Protein backbone atom coordinates (compact mmCIF):
# COMPACT_ATOMS: atom_id res chain seq x y z
CA UNK A 1 0.00 0.00 0.00
CA UNK A 2 1.42 3.40 -0.90
CA UNK A 3 2.83 5.46 1.92
CA UNK A 4 3.50 9.16 2.25
CA UNK A 5 7.00 8.79 0.81
CA UNK A 6 6.24 6.29 -1.96
CA UNK A 7 8.35 6.63 -5.11
CA UNK A 8 8.38 6.68 -8.05
CA UNK A 9 5.09 8.43 -8.75
CA UNK A 10 3.19 7.91 -12.00
CA UNK A 11 3.24 10.80 -14.45
CA UNK A 12 0.38 13.21 -13.68
CA UNK A 13 1.82 16.10 -15.70
CA UNK A 14 -0.66 15.87 -18.56
CA UNK A 15 -4.43 15.91 -18.34
CA UNK A 16 -7.03 16.63 -20.98
CA UNK A 17 -10.09 16.90 -18.71
CA UNK A 18 -9.95 18.12 -15.10
CA UNK A 19 -12.79 18.49 -12.61
CA UNK A 20 -12.14 20.52 -9.46
CA UNK A 21 -14.34 20.51 -6.36
CA UNK A 22 -13.62 21.72 -2.86
CA UNK A 23 -15.05 22.12 0.62
CA UNK A 24 -17.14 18.96 0.89
CA UNK A 25 -16.57 18.90 4.68
CA UNK A 26 -17.37 15.20 4.97
CA UNK A 27 -17.88 14.40 8.63
CA UNK A 28 -19.53 11.89 10.92
CA UNK A 29 -23.33 11.62 10.88
CA UNK A 30 -24.88 13.59 13.75
CA UNK A 31 -27.65 11.61 15.51
CA UNK A 32 -31.01 13.36 15.28
CA UNK A 33 -31.77 15.18 18.53
CA UNK A 34 -35.41 14.34 19.25
CA UNK A 35 -35.76 17.04 21.90
CA UNK A 36 -34.04 19.79 19.92
CA UNK A 37 -34.22 18.74 16.24
CA UNK A 38 -32.38 21.86 15.02
CA UNK A 39 -29.25 20.95 17.03
CA UNK A 40 -26.54 20.46 14.36
CA UNK A 41 -29.23 19.62 11.86
CA UNK A 42 -26.86 20.54 9.01
CA UNK A 43 -24.64 17.63 10.08
CA UNK A 44 -27.28 14.89 10.06
CA UNK A 45 -27.44 12.14 7.47
CA UNK A 46 -30.41 13.90 5.87
CA UNK A 47 -27.99 16.26 4.14
CA UNK A 48 -25.41 13.70 3.00
CA UNK A 49 -24.77 13.96 -0.73
CA UNK A 50 -22.85 10.73 -1.39
CA UNK A 51 -25.32 9.65 -4.06
CA UNK A 52 -25.05 13.06 -5.77
CA UNK A 53 -21.27 12.75 -5.72
CA UNK A 54 -21.54 9.41 -7.53
CA UNK A 55 -23.79 10.95 -10.17
CA UNK A 56 -21.37 13.86 -10.51
CA UNK A 57 -18.42 11.55 -11.22
CA UNK A 58 -20.38 9.72 -13.92
CA UNK A 59 -21.44 13.05 -15.39
CA UNK A 60 -17.79 14.14 -15.61
CA UNK A 61 -16.94 10.96 -17.47
CA UNK A 62 -19.77 11.62 -19.90
CA UNK A 63 -18.49 15.15 -20.52
CA UNK A 64 -15.00 13.76 -21.17
CA UNK A 65 -16.45 11.36 -23.81
CA UNK A 66 -14.24 8.45 -22.90
CA UNK A 67 -11.08 10.38 -22.05
CA UNK A 68 -9.69 9.87 -18.53
CA UNK A 69 -10.75 12.48 -15.99
CA UNK A 70 -8.47 14.09 -13.46
CA UNK A 71 -10.50 14.78 -10.29
CA UNK A 72 -8.89 17.34 -7.98
CA UNK A 73 -10.38 17.34 -4.50
CA UNK A 74 -9.22 20.81 -3.56
CA UNK A 75 -9.08 20.93 0.22
CA UNK A 76 -11.50 20.58 3.14
CA UNK A 77 -12.82 17.36 1.65
CA UNK A 78 -12.90 15.95 5.18
CA UNK A 79 -13.69 17.95 8.30
CA UNK A 80 -11.58 16.49 11.09
CA UNK A 81 -12.35 19.42 13.39
CA UNK A 82 -16.05 18.56 13.64
CA UNK A 83 -15.64 14.87 14.50
CA UNK A 84 -16.76 14.32 18.10
CA UNK A 85 -17.18 10.55 18.13
CA UNK A 86 -14.87 8.73 20.55
CA UNK A 87 -13.58 5.13 20.44
CA UNK A 88 -15.38 2.67 22.69
CA UNK A 89 -12.12 1.08 23.80
CA UNK A 90 -9.39 3.66 23.20
CA UNK A 91 -5.78 2.54 23.09
CA UNK A 92 -4.71 6.04 24.11
CA UNK A 93 -5.53 8.33 27.01
CA UNK A 94 -8.20 10.95 26.29
CA UNK A 95 -8.24 14.23 28.17
CA UNK A 96 -11.42 15.87 29.47
CA UNK A 97 -11.18 18.43 26.69
CA UNK A 98 -10.95 15.72 24.01
CA UNK A 99 -14.02 13.97 25.39
CA UNK A 100 -16.07 17.15 25.03
CA UNK A 101 -14.59 18.80 21.92
CA UNK A 102 -12.97 16.09 19.81
CA UNK A 103 -9.64 14.27 19.64
CA UNK A 104 -6.36 16.15 19.31
CA UNK A 105 -4.49 16.06 15.95
CA UNK A 106 -2.17 13.21 16.89
CA UNK A 107 -1.61 10.45 14.33
CA UNK A 108 -3.44 7.52 15.97
CA UNK A 109 -6.35 9.82 16.91
CA UNK A 110 -6.54 11.30 13.40
CA UNK A 111 -6.52 7.80 11.95
CA UNK A 112 -9.53 6.96 14.10
CA UNK A 113 -11.36 10.10 12.94
CA UNK A 114 -10.85 9.40 9.23
CA UNK A 115 -12.07 5.86 9.82
CA UNK A 116 -15.27 7.23 11.39
CA UNK A 117 -15.80 9.61 8.46
CA UNK A 118 -15.20 6.97 5.80
CA UNK A 119 -17.48 4.44 7.51
CA UNK A 120 -20.33 6.97 7.65
CA UNK A 121 -19.71 7.89 4.00
CA UNK A 122 -19.29 4.37 2.61
CA UNK A 123 -21.27 5.26 -0.51
CA UNK A 124 -18.95 8.20 -1.20
CA UNK A 125 -15.91 5.93 -0.84
CA UNK A 126 -17.45 3.32 -3.16
CA UNK A 127 -18.20 5.97 -5.80
CA UNK A 128 -14.62 7.25 -5.74
CA UNK A 129 -13.25 3.70 -5.86
CA UNK A 130 -15.29 2.81 -8.93
CA UNK A 131 -14.30 6.10 -10.56
CA UNK A 132 -10.61 5.18 -10.16
CA UNK A 133 -11.20 1.63 -11.38
CA UNK A 134 -12.73 3.03 -14.57
CA UNK A 135 -9.36 4.55 -15.49
CA UNK A 136 -9.52 8.00 -13.88
CA UNK A 137 -7.38 9.54 -11.13
CA UNK A 138 -7.90 11.60 -7.98
CA UNK A 139 -5.68 14.22 -6.33
CA UNK A 140 -6.28 15.32 -2.74
CA UNK A 141 -5.05 18.85 -2.03
CA UNK A 142 -4.78 19.37 1.73
CA UNK A 143 -6.86 22.27 3.10
CA UNK A 144 -7.16 23.75 6.57
CA UNK A 145 -9.91 21.49 7.95
CA UNK A 146 -8.22 18.32 6.69
CA UNK A 147 -4.65 19.15 7.71
CA UNK A 148 -4.56 15.75 9.38
CA UNK A 149 -4.20 14.24 5.91
CA UNK A 150 -0.50 14.98 6.45
CA UNK A 151 -0.29 11.90 8.68
CA UNK A 152 0.87 8.72 6.95
CA UNK A 153 -1.61 6.55 8.86
CA UNK A 154 -4.51 8.75 7.74
CA UNK A 155 -3.56 8.43 4.08
CA UNK A 156 -3.06 4.70 4.54
CA UNK A 157 -6.54 4.39 6.05
CA UNK A 158 -8.02 6.08 2.97
CA UNK A 159 -6.18 3.67 0.68
CA UNK A 160 -7.44 0.82 2.85
CA UNK A 161 -11.08 1.88 2.48
CA UNK A 162 -10.71 2.44 -1.26
CA UNK A 163 -9.41 -1.14 -1.53
CA UNK A 164 -7.87 -0.55 -4.94
CA UNK A 165 -5.78 -3.20 -6.73
CA UNK A 166 -2.03 -2.61 -6.81
CA UNK A 167 -2.02 -1.19 -10.33
CA UNK A 168 -4.65 1.44 -9.40
CA UNK A 169 -3.48 2.58 -5.97
CA UNK A 170 -1.03 5.11 -7.35
CA UNK A 171 -3.85 6.83 -9.24
CA UNK A 172 -4.72 8.46 -5.91
CA UNK A 173 -2.32 11.15 -4.74
CA UNK A 174 -2.07 13.50 -1.75
CA UNK A 175 -0.35 16.87 -2.20
CA UNK A 176 0.57 19.38 0.49
CA UNK A 177 -1.09 22.67 -0.47
CA UNK A 178 -0.92 23.10 -4.25
CA UNK A 179 -1.07 21.15 -7.50
CA UNK A 180 -0.31 22.13 -11.11
CA UNK A 181 -2.63 20.51 -13.62
CA UNK A 182 -1.40 20.00 -17.19
CA UNK A 183 1.15 22.81 -16.69
CA UNK A 184 -1.62 25.36 -17.33
CA UNK A 185 -3.57 25.57 -14.04
CA UNK A 186 -2.45 26.16 -10.46
CA UNK A 187 -4.85 24.63 -7.94
CA UNK A 188 -4.71 25.63 -4.26
CA UNK A 189 -7.22 25.46 -1.46
CA UNK A 190 -6.31 29.07 -0.64
CA UNK A 191 -6.05 28.93 3.15
CA UNK A 192 -2.34 29.80 3.04
CA UNK A 193 -3.31 33.42 2.31
CA UNK A 194 -5.82 33.57 5.17
CA UNK A 195 -4.07 34.42 8.49
CA UNK A 196 -6.85 32.77 10.49
CA UNK A 197 -6.69 29.44 8.64
CA UNK A 198 -3.15 29.07 7.29
CA UNK A 199 -0.93 26.11 8.10
CA UNK A 200 2.17 27.83 9.44
CA UNK A 201 4.60 25.48 7.72
CA UNK A 202 3.14 22.76 5.44
CA UNK A 203 6.67 21.64 4.59
CA UNK A 204 7.27 20.87 8.28
CA UNK A 205 3.76 20.69 9.77
CA UNK A 206 4.53 18.74 12.95
CA UNK A 207 5.36 19.91 16.46
CA UNK A 208 6.63 17.81 19.36
CA UNK A 209 4.72 17.56 22.62
CA UNK A 210 5.46 15.52 25.70
CA UNK A 211 5.93 11.99 24.33
CA UNK A 212 3.86 12.67 21.18
CA UNK A 213 3.96 14.41 17.80
CA UNK A 214 1.01 16.51 16.69
CA UNK A 215 0.01 19.04 14.05
CA UNK A 216 0.02 22.78 14.72
CA UNK A 217 -3.53 23.88 13.97
CA UNK A 218 -4.51 27.42 12.88
CA UNK A 219 -6.82 29.64 14.89
CA UNK A 220 -9.84 28.88 12.68
CA UNK A 221 -9.56 25.15 13.35
CA UNK A 222 -9.25 25.69 17.10
CA UNK A 223 -12.27 27.99 17.14
CA UNK A 224 -14.31 25.32 15.31
CA UNK A 225 -13.21 22.67 17.81
CA UNK A 226 -13.60 24.51 21.09
CA UNK A 227 -16.40 26.94 20.22
CA UNK A 228 -18.52 25.71 17.32
CA UNK A 229 -18.55 22.07 18.45
CA UNK A 230 -20.27 23.19 21.65
CA UNK A 231 -22.71 25.62 20.02
CA UNK A 232 -24.80 23.36 17.83
CA UNK A 233 -27.23 25.96 16.47
CA UNK A 234 -24.48 27.85 14.63
CA UNK A 235 -23.49 26.48 11.23
CA UNK A 236 -19.67 26.77 10.90
CA UNK A 237 -19.84 26.62 7.09
CA UNK A 238 -21.41 30.10 6.73
CA UNK A 239 -19.77 33.12 8.37
CA UNK A 240 -23.07 35.00 8.79
CA UNK A 241 -24.36 32.16 10.96
CA UNK A 242 -21.95 32.98 13.77
CA UNK A 243 -20.55 36.48 13.09
CA UNK A 244 -23.33 38.83 14.22
CA UNK A 245 -23.99 42.08 16.04
CA UNK A 246 -25.07 42.12 19.70
CA UNK A 247 -28.81 42.60 18.88
CA UNK A 248 -28.62 39.74 16.36
CA UNK A 249 -26.98 37.45 18.91
CA UNK A 250 -29.68 38.30 21.47
CA UNK A 251 -32.51 37.61 19.01
CA UNK A 252 -30.85 34.37 17.89
CA UNK A 253 -30.40 33.24 21.50
CA UNK A 254 -34.00 33.98 22.47
CA UNK A 255 -35.42 32.28 19.38
CA UNK A 256 -33.36 29.10 19.23
CA UNK A 257 -31.12 28.59 22.25
CA UNK A 258 -32.89 29.79 25.40
CA UNK A 259 -34.41 26.38 26.17
CA UNK A 260 -31.77 24.18 24.59
CA UNK A 261 -28.62 25.94 25.82
CA UNK A 262 -29.36 28.51 28.54
CA UNK A 263 -25.72 28.43 29.68
CA UNK A 264 -24.48 29.54 26.28
CA UNK A 265 -22.47 32.45 27.73
CA UNK A 266 -20.38 30.09 29.86
CA UNK A 267 -19.90 27.72 26.91
CA UNK A 268 -18.73 30.62 24.79
CA UNK A 269 -16.46 32.05 27.47
CA UNK A 270 -14.49 28.94 28.39
CA UNK A 271 -14.35 27.86 24.73
CA UNK A 272 -12.96 31.26 23.75
CA UNK A 273 -10.37 31.21 26.52
CA UNK A 274 -9.21 27.70 25.56
CA UNK A 275 -9.03 28.74 21.88
CA UNK A 276 -6.97 31.82 22.71
CA UNK A 277 -4.56 29.97 25.02
CA UNK A 278 -4.15 27.03 22.62
CA UNK A 279 -3.46 29.43 19.73
CA UNK A 280 -0.89 31.33 21.79
CA UNK A 281 1.04 28.29 23.00
CA UNK A 282 0.89 26.63 19.57
CA UNK A 283 2.43 29.78 18.11
CA UNK A 284 5.38 29.35 20.46
CA UNK A 285 5.92 25.71 19.46
CA UNK A 286 8.69 25.28 16.90
CA UNK A 287 8.04 22.90 13.95
CA UNK A 288 10.03 19.68 13.85
CA UNK A 289 12.73 20.21 11.21
CA UNK A 290 15.56 18.04 10.00
CA UNK A 291 18.02 20.31 8.11
CA UNK A 292 19.57 17.29 6.40
CA UNK A 293 16.26 16.32 4.80
CA UNK A 294 14.70 19.69 3.94
CA UNK A 295 15.73 19.59 0.28
CA UNK A 296 14.48 16.01 -0.08
CA UNK A 297 11.18 17.08 1.43
CA UNK A 298 10.89 20.07 -0.92
CA UNK A 299 11.76 17.87 -3.90
CA UNK A 300 9.07 15.35 -2.88
CA UNK A 301 6.41 18.03 -2.53
CA UNK A 302 7.37 19.44 -5.94
CA UNK A 303 7.30 16.03 -7.60
CA UNK A 304 3.82 15.23 -6.34
CA UNK A 305 2.54 18.68 -7.37
CA UNK A 306 4.03 18.56 -10.91
CA UNK A 307 6.21 21.51 -9.93
CA UNK A 308 9.85 22.45 -9.54
CA UNK A 309 11.54 22.64 -6.11
CA UNK A 310 12.07 26.38 -6.51
CA UNK A 311 8.30 26.82 -6.93
CA UNK A 312 7.72 25.21 -3.54
CA UNK A 313 10.15 27.58 -1.83
CA UNK A 314 8.89 30.66 -3.68
CA UNK A 315 5.20 29.93 -3.09
CA UNK A 316 5.95 29.49 0.60
CA UNK A 317 7.32 33.05 0.70
CA UNK A 318 3.83 34.34 -0.19
CA UNK A 319 2.20 32.91 2.92
CA UNK A 320 0.69 35.45 5.28
CA UNK A 321 1.71 35.70 8.93
CA UNK A 322 -0.57 33.63 11.17
CA UNK A 323 -3.19 35.58 13.14
CA UNK A 324 -1.91 33.84 16.29
CA UNK A 325 1.03 36.26 16.13
CA UNK A 326 -1.38 38.88 17.52
CA UNK A 327 -3.24 37.54 20.59
CA UNK A 328 -5.08 40.86 21.00
CA UNK A 329 -6.57 40.49 17.53
CA UNK A 330 -7.75 36.97 18.39
CA UNK A 331 -9.25 38.21 21.65
CA UNK A 332 -11.30 40.74 19.67
CA UNK A 333 -12.47 38.08 17.23
CA UNK A 334 -13.54 35.92 20.18
CA UNK A 335 -15.30 38.87 21.90
CA UNK A 336 -13.06 38.44 24.93
CA UNK A 337 -12.17 42.15 24.80
CA UNK A 338 -15.82 43.00 25.39
CA UNK A 339 -16.02 40.44 28.18
CA UNK A 340 -12.98 42.06 29.79
CA UNK A 341 -14.55 45.53 29.57
CA UNK A 342 -17.73 44.26 31.24
CA UNK A 343 -15.75 42.52 33.97
CA UNK A 344 -13.68 45.64 34.70
CA UNK A 345 -16.78 47.84 34.72
CA UNK A 346 -18.58 45.58 37.21
CA UNK A 347 -15.49 45.30 39.39
CA UNK A 348 -14.90 49.07 39.55
CA UNK A 349 -18.55 49.84 40.21
CA UNK A 350 -18.65 47.18 42.92
CA UNK A 351 -15.59 48.67 44.60
CA UNK A 352 -17.16 52.13 44.32
CA UNK A 353 -20.36 50.91 45.95
CA UNK A 354 -18.38 49.29 48.78
CA UNK A 355 -16.75 52.66 49.53
CA UNK A 356 -20.05 54.56 49.28
CA UNK A 357 -21.89 52.08 51.52
CA UNK A 358 -19.20 52.49 54.16
CA UNK A 359 -20.28 56.14 54.39
CA UNK A 360 -23.97 56.07 53.44
CA UNK A 361 -26.54 53.32 53.91
CA UNK A 362 -27.78 52.90 50.33
CA UNK A 363 -28.91 49.90 48.33
CA UNK A 364 -26.66 48.10 45.86
CA UNK A 365 -29.36 48.72 43.27
CA UNK A 366 -27.88 52.21 42.86
CA UNK A 367 -25.02 50.45 41.04
CA UNK A 368 -27.29 50.11 38.01
CA UNK A 369 -27.17 53.87 37.43
CA UNK A 370 -23.46 53.98 36.43
CA UNK A 371 -23.94 50.73 34.52
CA UNK A 372 -26.69 52.28 32.42
CA UNK A 373 -24.54 55.35 31.90
CA UNK A 374 -21.69 53.19 30.58
CA UNK A 375 -23.96 51.11 28.33
CA UNK A 376 -24.00 53.56 25.34
CA UNK A 377 -20.19 53.72 25.35
CA UNK A 378 -19.98 49.92 25.44
CA UNK A 379 -22.43 49.57 22.55
CA UNK A 380 -20.54 52.20 20.55
CA UNK A 381 -17.26 50.32 21.07
CA UNK A 382 -18.84 46.96 20.19
CA UNK A 383 -20.32 48.35 16.99
CA UNK A 384 -16.99 49.89 15.99
CA UNK A 385 -15.23 46.51 16.20
CA UNK A 386 -15.72 44.48 13.01
CA UNK A 387 -14.57 40.94 12.35
CA UNK A 388 -11.76 40.58 9.85
CA UNK A 389 -12.25 36.84 9.32
CA UNK A 390 -14.23 37.07 6.07
CA UNK A 391 -12.15 39.86 4.58
CA UNK A 392 -8.94 37.82 4.49
CA UNK A 393 -10.31 34.70 2.82
CA UNK A 394 -10.08 35.73 -0.84
CA UNK A 395 -6.48 36.10 -2.13
CA UNK A 396 -5.67 39.60 -3.36
CA UNK A 397 -4.50 40.65 -6.83
CA UNK A 398 -0.83 40.70 -5.79
CA UNK A 399 -0.94 37.07 -4.66
CA UNK A 400 -2.65 36.01 -7.88
CA UNK A 401 -0.02 37.78 -9.98
CA UNK A 402 2.89 36.36 -7.99
CA UNK A 403 1.63 32.76 -7.95
CA UNK A 404 1.00 32.99 -11.67
CA UNK A 405 4.57 34.23 -12.29
CA UNK A 406 6.12 31.60 -10.01
CA UNK A 407 4.30 28.62 -11.52
CA UNK A 408 4.21 29.98 -15.10
CA UNK A 409 0.47 29.50 -15.52
CA UNK A 410 -2.28 31.97 -16.34
CA UNK A 411 -5.11 30.18 -14.57
CA UNK A 412 -5.53 29.75 -10.80
CA UNK A 413 -8.30 27.84 -9.00
CA UNK A 414 -9.01 28.24 -5.29
CA UNK A 415 -11.60 27.00 -2.82
CA UNK A 416 -11.82 27.86 0.90
CA UNK A 417 -14.23 30.83 0.73
CA UNK A 418 -17.32 28.74 -0.18
CA UNK A 419 -18.17 31.43 -2.74
CA UNK A 420 -17.94 30.83 -6.50
CA UNK A 421 -15.88 33.19 -8.59
CA UNK A 422 -14.73 33.43 -12.21
CA UNK A 423 -13.04 36.55 -13.50
CA UNK A 424 -10.01 37.83 -15.35
CA UNK A 425 -7.62 39.91 -13.24
CA UNK A 426 -4.87 41.34 -15.42
CA UNK A 427 -3.51 38.37 -17.34
CA UNK A 428 -4.64 35.81 -14.74
CA UNK A 429 -7.86 33.84 -14.94
CA UNK A 430 -9.12 33.32 -11.39
CA UNK A 431 -11.77 30.77 -10.41
CA UNK A 432 -13.19 29.61 -7.10
CA UNK A 433 -14.94 26.27 -7.15
CA UNK A 434 -17.38 27.16 -4.36
CA UNK A 435 -18.46 24.38 -2.03
CA UNK A 436 -20.41 21.19 -1.52
CA UNK A 437 -20.61 21.54 2.24
CA UNK A 438 -23.88 21.59 4.21
CA UNK A 439 -23.86 25.40 4.17
CA UNK A 440 -27.21 26.98 4.98
CA UNK A 441 -28.21 30.56 5.69
CA UNK A 442 -30.76 29.50 8.30
CA UNK A 443 -30.90 27.14 11.28
CA UNK A 444 -33.77 25.19 9.71
CA UNK A 445 -31.49 24.31 6.76
CA UNK A 446 -33.91 25.49 4.09
CA UNK A 447 -31.65 28.04 2.36
CA UNK A 448 -28.58 26.32 0.85
CA UNK A 449 -25.60 28.44 -0.19
CA UNK A 450 -23.94 27.71 -3.57
CA UNK A 451 -23.80 23.98 -3.11
CA UNK A 452 -22.38 21.39 -5.49
CA UNK A 453 -20.41 23.69 -7.76
CA UNK A 454 -17.29 22.71 -9.69
CA UNK A 455 -14.69 23.92 -12.16
CA UNK A 456 -14.43 22.00 -15.42
CA UNK A 457 -11.32 22.34 -17.61
CA UNK A 458 -11.37 20.73 -21.04
CA UNK A 459 -9.80 21.19 -24.50
CA UNK A 460 -11.28 24.00 -26.57
CA UNK A 461 -11.50 24.38 -30.33
CA UNK A 462 -8.25 26.34 -30.32
CA UNK A 463 -6.43 23.39 -28.79
CA UNK A 464 -5.70 24.97 -25.41
CA UNK A 465 -7.78 24.08 -22.38
CA UNK A 466 -10.74 26.23 -21.33
CA UNK A 467 -12.12 26.53 -17.78
CA UNK A 468 -15.78 26.96 -16.90
CA UNK A 469 -17.68 27.16 -13.62
CA UNK A 470 -20.75 24.95 -13.21
CA UNK A 471 -23.35 23.94 -10.68
CA UNK A 472 -24.38 20.28 -10.60
CA UNK A 473 -28.18 20.07 -10.41
CA UNK A 474 -30.36 16.98 -10.95
CA UNK A 475 -27.65 15.08 -12.79
CA UNK A 476 -26.83 17.99 -15.12
CA UNK A 477 -24.35 20.84 -15.10
CA UNK A 478 -25.52 24.45 -15.29
CA UNK A 479 -23.07 27.16 -16.37
CA UNK A 480 -22.79 29.71 -13.55
CA UNK A 481 -20.48 32.55 -14.49
CA UNK A 482 -18.50 33.78 -17.44
CA UNK A 483 -15.18 35.52 -16.86
CA UNK A 484 -15.65 39.23 -16.41
CA UNK A 485 -13.63 42.04 -17.89
CA UNK A 486 -10.18 42.79 -16.65
CA UNK A 487 -10.23 44.88 -13.48
CA UNK A 488 -6.50 45.54 -13.50
Describe this structure in words.
The model is unreliable at 1-5 and 484-488 (pLDDT under 50). This protein is 37% helix and 15% strand. It has helices at 50-64, 96-101, 107-120, 122-133, 152-162, 166-169, 219-226, 246-257, 264-284, 294-304, 309-316, 327-333, 336-357, 368-384, 397-407; strands spanning 17-21, 69-74, 137-141, 172-175, 178-181, 185-188, 206-209, 212-215, 411-414, 420-425, 428-433, 453-459, 465-473, 476-481. The strands form three sheets. A seven-stranded mixed β-sheet has the order 4-3-2-1-12-13-14, with helices on one face. It starts with 16 loop residues before the first strand and ends in a 7-residue tail after the last strand. The chain contains 15 helices and 14 strands. The chain is an alpha/beta fold and 488 residues long.
Run of helices and strands: EHEHHHEHHEEEEEHHHHHHHHHEEEEEE
Low-confidence stretches: 1-5, 484-488
Number of strands: 14
Amount of beta strand: 15-25%
Shape: globular
Number of helices: 15
What is the residue-averaged pLDDT?
A: 88
- Strand neighbour order, sheet with most strands: 4-3-2-1-12-13-14
Concise summary:
The chain has 15 helices and 14 strands.
Task: Please give a handful of descriptors for the protein shown.
disordered C terminus, disordered N terminus, 37% helix, 488 residues, five-stranded mixed beta sheet, alpha/beta, seven-stranded mixed beta sheet
Amino acid sequence: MPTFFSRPFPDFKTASHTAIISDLHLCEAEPVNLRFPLWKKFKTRQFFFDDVFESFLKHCEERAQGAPVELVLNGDIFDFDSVLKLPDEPVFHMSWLEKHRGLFPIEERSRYKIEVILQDHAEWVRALREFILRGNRAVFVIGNHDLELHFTEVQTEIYKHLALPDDKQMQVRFVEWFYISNQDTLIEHGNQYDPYCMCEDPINPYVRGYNFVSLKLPFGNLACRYLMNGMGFFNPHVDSNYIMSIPEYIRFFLKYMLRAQPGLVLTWFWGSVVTLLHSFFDRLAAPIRNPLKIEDRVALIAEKANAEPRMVRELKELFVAPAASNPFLLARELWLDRAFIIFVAFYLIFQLMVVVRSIYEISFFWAFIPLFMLLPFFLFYSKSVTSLVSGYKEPDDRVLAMTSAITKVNRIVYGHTHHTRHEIIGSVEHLNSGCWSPAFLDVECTKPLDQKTFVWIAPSESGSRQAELFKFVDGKSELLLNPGRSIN
